[in-house]
Amino acid sequence: MAADLKTISDKLWTAADKLRANSGILPAEYARPVLGLLFLRHADERFAEVEARLAPREGSRIRPGPEAYKAEGAIFLPPEARFSFLLALPEGSNLGRALTTAMREIEAKNPELADVLPKTYQSIPDDVLVELLRELQPLTIDGDAFGHVYEYFMGNFAKDTMQKGGEFYTPSSIVRLIVEIIEPYHGRILDPACGSGGMFVHSADFVKRHQREPDKELSMVWSAPERPGAWPR
Predict the structure, then answer these.
(1) For residues 217 and 184, what is the distance between their CA atoms, to the nearest angstrom?
(2) Pairwise CA distance, residues 122 & 148, whole Å
(3) How many helices (H) and strands (E) does the chain have?
(4) 44 and which of 9, 83, 139, 155 could share a cystine (Cβ 3.0–4.6 Å)?
(5) Tens-digit pLDDT profile for the chain (233 aa)?
(6) Nearest partner of 78 among 109, 37, 48, judged by Cα
(7) What does the alpha-carbon distance between residue 86 and residue 66 come to, in Å, rounded to a whole number?
(8) pTM of the prediction?
């Protein structure tokens, strides 16, 4: 991880953990909502990039829908799920309820995310949520770098929330080692205990390092504990 990226990760984690500690929230209650906000910030940045490309011509009444964004590799975000909208809510608004509603709306517009996003923001004080949004707002990093920040948070939350290492989160170094051993140049990858998708991310990185295109070389299959079965991607 580049030094500047580690600095960003450290700063974000320090701010988030300080907010948690000062509010008295348990790490287990805080982890998924914060990871959900990290996801939302990245999804918002990607959405904005695609929105600029898909902007209709002047005078046109046609507006691109969810499928158009999906075709461009972006998650469609309704207006009430945009970071700017949530951050601009007036003081006294129920931000926890607004965030929960935003996550439900994102799932509704993107059925592949059904029952995946956290919807427990009302359990966190609004002042903590406001500060988290303010900390994440300046975050402008590309997809690969965002993955490192996400993994960094996952690893730190795992240390705080699990009694035995590896129960909840397999360290990134172990996943990278497994990928280097199996050498997934081409084919279908099965991760039956998929959590954050680290196996898929590192496999894609492996293919990129060998001057190939992951989208053309790999397909993914997983089986989530909450949703039995496997879905090829």
Answers:
(1) 9
(2) 28
(3) 10, 3
(4) 83
(5) 444 777 778 888 888 888 888 888 887 788 888 888 888 998 999 999 999 988 877 766 677 888 899 888 889 999 999 998 999 999 888 999 999 999 999 999 999 888 889 998 998 999 999 988 998 888 776 656 677 777 777 777 777 665 454 455 677 777 888 888 888 888 888 877 666 677 777 788 888 888 888 878 888 776 544 444 333 33
(6) 109
(7) 20
(8) 0.71
- Which tokens hold the place of 14? 């320090």
Whole-angstrom distance, CA of residue 157 vs CA of residue 168: 10
Closest residue by Cα to residue 186 from 144, 216, 208: 216
d(CA 86, CA 93): 10
Bridge-partner residues for 134, per DSSP?
Answer: none
For residue 68, the one-letter residue type is A
Strands (E), the chain: 187-191, 218-224, 227-232
Q: How far apart are the first and last CA of the chain?
A: 28
Question: Tokens 């009694």 map to which residue?
Answer: 163
CA–CA gap between residue 117 and residue 38 (Å, rounded): 11
Separation CA 3–CA 163 (nearest Å)? 30
